[in-house]
Each structure stands twice: as C-alpha cells, then as structure tokens.
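User: Can you recover a sequence for this backbone? Please restate the input before giving your answer.

Assistant: Of course. Working from this structure:
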C-alpha cells in the first residue's frame, strides 16, 4: 500500500534515472494534459522530489508533473527502448530520455502544472514526515485544533502531517495502546505518538519490506494491520476488523468516508467515544 515511505523511494529511483536528462518522448493519458505532454520533449528533467504522498517531476522550463500513486499506482523504470512488460491500458504517464523510460501505472492523479500552480496545489499539506520541512511542533498544533476528532482520522489527515496512510496509523494506534476512535483530546502524550510515527516511517523509507514489528519475514511485519481473526502477538486476543474515519471527512458528516481498521480488544481498550 503506497504511503510516504513508498513515495520517498519512488522519487529517489526516478530522480536517479531521470534527473539531468532531456525528454525525448512524453505521454500523459489524461485528456486535459495529453496535448501539452508533447511540449515536454526537449525539456531537461531537473529533479524528482516527494511531498508526503505526492511525486513532483520538475523540468527546466519551470513546469512540474504532479502525480499521486493512490491505492494501486506505481512507476516502472527501464532502459530506453526496452519498455517494461506491463498492460498497455494501465499506463497513465510515460517519460523517455536517451537512456531511460519511466512508466506511471494506475496513477490516481496526473497533472502538468506551473511551479506556482504546483505550490498552490499542495499548499494544504502539513509538515512532511520525510521532508526537509518536518516540524513536529507544527504537526502537533494542527492535530490539536480539533480535540473531538478521532485520533486515527487526525493522523490520516494530510493537512496535519503528510505521509501517513492507513497501515501506519493502524499500527501506531496499536503500539500506543489506543482505540483508533479515541478523541484527540483524550490521547495522552501526542508528541510521543508523533515522534513514533516519524521514527517508524524513517526506518522504513529505504527498504521495500515495510515493518512495524522489526521482523522482515513475510507474515511477521505488522502487529494488527490485515490480521483480523488472528491472535495478537502480545496477548493472544483475537484481532478485530472495524472501521474508522478516513481523515478526509466533510464538515457536515465526520464519518462520511471510512477506512478499514484493526484492533486488539485487550491491548487497545475500546474508547468511550464509540
């Protein structure tokens, strides 16, 4: 599941493969930008950078290709002329240089923007857990603005801190003994929770096998995430599958959208708010 660490690695690989090279072919399979993509030919790619869960491919003419992996997206890289074996209909973006081809597959967002437009587009994001702007105090202040909000939703809200997805949030709640529905105002030591989030995503940013347990063996990498019906690794209780607010809820309905949640009923006692 793509979260901030996945995007961080994708940006690093794309930067290594593309930065400093001139575009020889470009294709964006989005009606609004399909024609403009051709004008990228001849432009130099200056950098590829992550911002939370967003990828920014920067060109020397000031434009930025903004992409988002969504739930299933990825980038594939190969030598120029050796197109990766992928289903043609999955390709939403393609950038080719004289040495490399990069294909964006099943991307949820593909936009070709000016640098000012890109800045405005991502201006709502909170401090990036894996970025140079990381500021735990700013993240804390944003989270505490809504004390009645569920802690899981507050951590998932990219306006508070950028980079966490549902897997990290579910695991963080377990590690801190929290029911994901616990109101922010009832969570003790939120700074420690934020520090743990930063530490977990940082140690995972350079490896494909994400783990929150410290064990890299298949089936041993998570405490509760996707382990409903299985015994808790700490106490043996059966892990429950529930839902919690998604972090992108509307002001009129805080539970308009939900995400799957996993909880140990013993290690994470049910909040009185549920």
């Amino acid at each position: 599941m793509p979260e901030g660490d996945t995007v961080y690695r994708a940006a690093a690989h794309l930067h290594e493969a593309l930065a400093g090279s001139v575009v020889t072919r470009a294709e964006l399979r989005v009606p609004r930008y399909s024609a403009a993509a051709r004008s990228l030919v001849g432009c130099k790619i200056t950098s590829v950078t992550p911002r939370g869960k967003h990828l920014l491919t920067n060109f020397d003419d000031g434009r930025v290709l903004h992409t988002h992996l969504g739930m299933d997206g990825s980038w594939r890289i190969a030598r120029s002329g050796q197109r990766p074996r992928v289903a043609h209909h999955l390709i939403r973006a393609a950038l080719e240089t004289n040495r490399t081809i990069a294909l964006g597959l099943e991307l949820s967002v593909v936009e070709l923007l000016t640098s000012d437009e890109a800045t405005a587009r991502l201006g709502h994001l909170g401090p990036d857990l894996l970025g140079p702007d990381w500021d735990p105090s700013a993240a804390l202040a944003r989270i505490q603005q809504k004390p009645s909000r569920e802690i899981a939703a507050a951590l998932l809200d990219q306006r508070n801190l950028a980079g966490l997805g549902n897997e990290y949030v579910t695991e963080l709640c377990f590690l801190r003994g929290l029911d994901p529905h616990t109101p922010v105002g009832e969570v003790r030591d939120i700074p420690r929770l934020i520090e743990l989030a930063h530490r977990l995503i940082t140690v995972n940013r350079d490896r494909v096998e994400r783990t929150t347990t410290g064990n890299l063996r298949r089936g041993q990498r998570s405490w509760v995430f996707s382990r409903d019906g299985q015994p808790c690794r700490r106490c043996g209780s059966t892990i429950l599958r529930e839902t919690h607010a998604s972090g992108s809820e509307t002001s009129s309905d805080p539970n308009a959208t939900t995400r799957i949640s996993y909880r140990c009923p013993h290690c994470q006692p049910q909040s009185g708010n549920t």
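That completes the design. The two ends are 27 Å apart (CA to CA).
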